[in-house]
Amino acid sequence: MTRPRHATRPRAFVLVEVMLGVMIFAVGVLALGRCVQNCIVAEGARQQTDRARLALENRMAGIEAGEIPTDKDRTDDLGDDFPGMTIKQTRIAVKAKNEKDQDIQGLYQVDIEADWTTENEPQSRTISFYVLRSH
What we know:
Elements: H1 9-64, E1 74-77, E2 86-93, E3 107-118, E4 121-132
Antiparallel strand pairs: 1-2, 2-3, 3-4
């Protein structure tokens, strides 16, 4: 005795449903993998930015302490302490007056820029502050 044709259709439909479910699951796993990859890249960028901030803070502290001169522009490779990172330092004289309308002598704006490359993209962070050098 043979089975009627309509009896095999529900089983074939279940197979299609299972295959569709596996495909949807696979797409979800691929999307989740991409999200994880983006998170890893973002964390790496955050770490590089933190390193740059630390390098800028170190340079600013050295300038404020008088250990690093500001009399000329300079560019330094930070070497082993911060591999792949360079610091550019510039100084601009600031014309300002005090409360007695007298010129303030020896006031400078110092700009420090940290440059590095992340995933073949140039990155930079800058900090600006003022120093007062007496003559």
